[in-house]
Each structure stands twice: as C-alpha cells, then as structure tokens.
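Work package 3, deliverable 3.1, input record:
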Amino acid sequence: MNTLLNLKASAALIPEPNDYRALVCVFLHGGYDSYNVLVPTSSTEYADYRATRSNLALPATGTGAVLPLTVANTPGRTFGVHPGLPRVRGLFNSGKLAFLSNVGALVEPSTVSEFWNQSTNGKRYPLALFSHSDQTQHWQTSIPQSRTGIVGWAGRMADMLNAATNNSALAMNISLAGYNMMQVGEDTTFFSMNADGPQRLTGDGNSSGRFRVQNDALRDLCSQTHRNLYEQAFADQVKDSIDLSRAFGDAWNNSQVTTSFATNNSLAQNLRSIAKTIGARQALGVKRQVFFVVYGGWDHHQELLANQAYMLPQLDAAFQGFHDALVELGVWNNVVTFTSSEFARTLRSNGRGTDHAWGGNHMIMGGPVDGGKIYGQYPIIRFNSPRDIGGGGLLLPTTSCDEYFAELISWFGVPISELSTILPNLTNFYSPSLSARPIGFIPNI
Amino acid sequence: MSQSLHSKRYGIAIIGIAVLGYLLLHMLVLPEKFRPANREGDAPADSDLHTRQPRNEENPTEGAATRNPPIRGYDAFAQYGVADGNAVEDLRIVSNALASFHLAVKNDDLPTGSNRHLMDAMRGRNKSGIQLIRADHPMLNADGEIVDRWGTPLYFHAISLINVGVRSAGPDKEMWTDDDLTSGPAANPVTETAHHP
C-alpha cells in the first residue's frame, strides 16, 4: 500500500514554490442541531419548520429571530441563520462562507423506501447509525461500512501527498485535539499540539525553564549509542521527537498574529494557534497541511435553545477571528475551513432538546469557496417528508461525506483520478471522469 | 372371539376418526388465539407489526393473557411490563435484551438509535431473522415502539454499537426531567469533548 501510494504521489500535484494550502476541520462533537443553525424562512417552509420543531423553533421576527441570509442560488427559497451567528451571516453574505445541506455518512445513494427494505434489496448503510462513536468514526474514515483495518481519509491523503509536497520532518496532519482517526494513515500519523503550541514530552508550553532542562536531559540520554537495535530505534525516535518539537516551538513562537481572539473561547484559541502555525509555514518547510480541532458538547438532548444560544456565538467569534487572522497573514485564499459532526439531530423536539439523527448542514469558509450559496439539497422540515426515515424526523442525507471531502481534497491537490483511492465509496456518488468537482463549492479544478 | 375382535377394530377406527375430526376442528374452527400464529422461524409480516396497543394504564395487565407460542430466538421481553415487576427492572430487561441481541446477531449489525428501529430489528427484521420480542407484545405501541409503564416510548441513547443507554420519561411522561429512569451513564448526553471512537 505504501509503495502504491508513493507511486501515485508522483502523479499528484507537486506544489509551486509559493503554493501553500491548508484544510482546517472543525469537528463539532456531540452531533450539532444544524436545523436551528440554517433555517428556512420562506412563508410555507417556515410554517412547516415552526410546526415541526414546535417549542424549539426560532422566531421569524422580533427578539431572537433568525438573521436573514442573502442566498445566491436558491430562487424562491429564503433562509436565515441562528441569531447567535451574526458574523457567520456577514461572512456568508459577503461570499466568504457557504453551507452544504443534508450531508452525512452514506455508502451509496438511497431512498427512504430502500432504507426500510435494506434486508431484502442489498443496499448498504453506515454501521450503527445514530451512535456517537460509530458515526464519528465514519465521518473520519469515510468508509462507514467497515470498522476494522481502516485509517482516516486525511491520513490516507498524507500517505499519498506528504513526501511530494512537504520538505519537512513535520507531519502533514496536525491535531489540536489529541488522537483522532481522521488523521491516522498507514504510514503517517499526526503531530499533536494545542492552543499554546506544541506538546512536549516533559511538559507543556515554554521552551525555557525546567521543562527545557528536562528535555535536554532526556535528549542526552537518547543520544547515547545502544547495542540493542530496538533500544537504538526507540532512542532515535524520542530524540527526533524532541528536536521536532523544539524546532516547531521556535517557529511557532516567532510567528506573529496580531488579530485579537477571544481569550475565554477554546475554539478561538485553537484557531489562533493554527493561524500562528500557518504563519510559520515557510520556517517549517511545509506546503500542505491539514488541521483538526474539536469544539465539543453539542449532544443537546436537553436545553437545546439555551445551549445553542451560548455555544454558537463562541463559534461565530472564532470563525470571524480566524478569517481576520488569515487575511492578516495573506493566506485567506490558501485555507479552507469546514465543519463536521457525527450526525445532525431529529426535527422533533423531545420536549427540551433533540435526539440523534443523520444528515445535517455544514459550513465551509475560505477564499477558494464560492460562498453566499447553499449547496446540496436543503430538505423540507416536515415529518414524513421525502427524506424523513421516521422516528421523529431523521433525515436521510442527500449528499455523502465522500462528495464533501472529495471537493476539499481535490482542491488540496489530490488529482481527480486519485480521489477514489482516498475515498473508496466516492464512485457510488460521483464519476471522477467528470470535469467538475462533485458539489461545486470550490469551483475551479 | 371373532366378534370381540371386530368390535375392537370398530372401536379403534372410531377413536381414530374422532382424533382426526378434532384436529380438523382445531385447524378450522377454534379461535385464532389457540392456534400458532406463525410457523416457528417465520419473521413477522409487516401487517403483523404495530397492530397492538400498549397496555391500558387503567388496566396494566391487559394483554398478558393473549401471548402467542414461542418465537424464533427467545422471549427476552417476557417479563417486561408485567404487573409484579417494576420500571427499574424493565430497563434492566431492555439492556439485557440489547446485549443478547448484539451477541446473537454476530455478523449483522444491531441498529442503534431510534426506538422503532431497534424494536423492528428485535421483532425479526434482521438478516438472521432472530426475534427477541413478540410482534404482539402489549408494551409495543401503534408505531412499533416499546413504551414504559406510563405509556411513553423509551429513548435509546447510542454511545456506540455496544453501549446503548436506555431512558424512561418516568411518571411525569416528560423526557429529560428529574424523574427520568435510566439504565446507567450511557443514557446521559455526551458532555466531554471526546472525539474519537
């Protein structure tokens, strides 16, 4: 597999000297209720929304009303966003951010009827639908029909592209949330950091003080020659890790971002750390990077309205700050930020919140994005609508994660002909022979 | 001697005819509830599902006497909702049934999430055809959902395939309130920022 991917890397795009590109995945863990984030406001559709969501429906007018969007590609249909997202609304209306509707994990296209007759029609579906951990894994591997022997889609991409695109010991994938499956490859893994920079073996943060003494001591130990090959290999690994962490830390510390980020906002602080890392790209010798950050706590079975009223403004401020920082660094056109979440939530209120469902709406932000548009198919917010599989408004996705990710990794540098190597189920939804990307939110190939 | 032998033969013939007649009567005339509803091993037909109303709150034992003969699998819900049980024990029964189903349907996948999906699977809509609950269980409502002793459908909170919490709305019939009954921590929302399986 390694040889195969390396061979394929030779066919991949080898970046020009100043061609830097980064993907930033903001994973909204818990399953965020995206049908109160992007809300239909046309009279008939809003009436359906209002009746269906009952006590959880946002008002169309007055205090706490949805903020109207100027949507360029939904003639006859109007939409708004949650009142906690005024900056996201501004980014959308200025063409810098787009929504993708009713996207979720799928193995192949399906109708509701086919879903309910899957035991006889042979259609395949994601394993353990509506389960947190399984659906998280599916979003991160994009192989939802399997649980074993698989790695993440960004990991597979790093296996293919890293050697050809990055002249650095630093991994292409960088996580600000510890372990995640998305960034694990067969031959590559991720570099772990946090809002304060790189994580170190003997301590966090500062490159001076007692942690530096501890690191120096450990490095000296590992610099000894060992007779046993395994001991030598382990010592080399640890020493390389210390050196890489130190080099990364120095570059990160020297990277200046003056944009202000909210200090009591974990997502904002993580995005600031990513911005500083992007600012250090030349010192680090990298041209392709994938960042993974988690903003969790969206499992809103209860107090949905209050929780979203608190959490969405945090996301709103973080996105605006990240936008401003990327503009400051001159890389707005080189970075695409996108949201993921293991599933969306039921249309039906359980009285205080909503429960696990399937397809939902996501945000894509960046200079390369043809923003101000809603891509995919925004569903009818009504029980027993054509995409409702029942059980309280669980919407069968109309766009697969594979199409979503294919659009992103195609822009990132994976040739169209190699997309299905990274996303094996993609050809169930999209023909790589087409000259256009699967969805179109990043229009130019 | 010969007449006696003849009499015996007549007697045996009469008894045989009587037995055959009884069996014929049993098949054609006796009430439906005294006949096997399905050949053993048959999965329930769609028309069999969702036809029974849940136990009447004023008469909580209604329906208990009309249960059918054995199903394919085992009747994991036999004691669910019985008059001498209790709501906590009911949740334990459901949790055990989930665990049993996961073990029994090894190469299939136990659907997770909605009550209806789970109960459909447990009624036999799975590749193995294994049933753990009767299609006419009195605690299934018209939508095919298993309900608690107060008539509210249970909620299944799927952390993972094999870690599914069960929640009853309790006496107030409102989910996610203080009187809810739960099968354990998995029944609560995910609050940590864990992001990997």
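The beta strands of chain B are 155-160, 163-168, 181-182.
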